[in-house]
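Supplementary notes for students who missed Thursday's class. We covered one full example, reproduced here. Read the sequence, then the structure, then the short commentary at the end.
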Amino acid sequence: MKYQNVVVTGGAGFIGSYAVERLVEENCNVTVIDDLSAGNKKTIEHLKGKIEFVVSDIRDEDILQKICSGKDTIFHFAADPNVKTSITNPQNSFNINVRGTFLLLETMRRLDIPNIVFASSGGTLYGQVDVFPTPEETQFRPISAYGATKATVEVYLSAYCASYGMNAVSLRYANIFGPRSTHGVMFDFYHKLKKNPKQLEILGDGKQIKSYLYITDCIDASLIAAKKGVEKGFDAFNIGTDKWTTVNEIANVIADEMGLKDVKYTYTGGQAGWTGDVFKMLLSTEKINKLGWTPKTTIEEGIRLYIRWLKENY
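Structure (token representation):
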């Protein structure tokens, strides 16, 4: 896939803002659209003058038509990213993640835009599976409305590629973490320990075991997949590591980086931290590895870098 004139949806968000930075470094012409419901314009303020930034919901069809005109590729990161609230408010998750993407695809179809790179989800898309590491051809078994929206979008991408000659790369992310992230287990643990350095409540039993990936490695892999993946039609790549990490291990590293000793862990119980939580996830990265990518940052190194950033900013 070749790209030069691009739109980045959700480009003020966590992963999206890093993608915008890298695309600017590659001398792409970048337009960002973000309604700032989950993103923060501070993440891309330093790029002022180098990008076009439009504050809007991706469901505004007139705005989509205007900003997508003349573009060759859409990097689609905009979403309602909250798995927990997708359980309590599935309609909102559907409206943003599925309907929003459908309107984007329709805009692409009308304007004859050939390429889309989609931020999917490895853990929530596959759900509770019994094959580890989990390869891309595994059947989807999502257990949350959020995971169901990602599965639905991938089906639409496949259909639009077959019906209208589009090209799509779906990036099935592991748990991505690092500076600028304002949700997730590491963010939660840091704030809990800052409030009470003696005790940490852990949702579930602490034995949840998953694949985590540092943000800069995530962006490296994402752009390699976009460039070297399928030349025509639909393709998908798992983006993660081949290492397991438990929630307890994460807590230990964070406590150590914060200089805390003898922290008492308490548990809410159960395998999953909450309804919709995929408590066991390890993605096969063989496919993306074959394109020449391997992560540069270990999980422990990444956690420590992230906690240092949190200490400077919170």
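Commentary. The mean pLDDT is 97. Residues 59 and 103 are 7 Å apart (CA to CA). If anything here is unclear, bring it to office hours.
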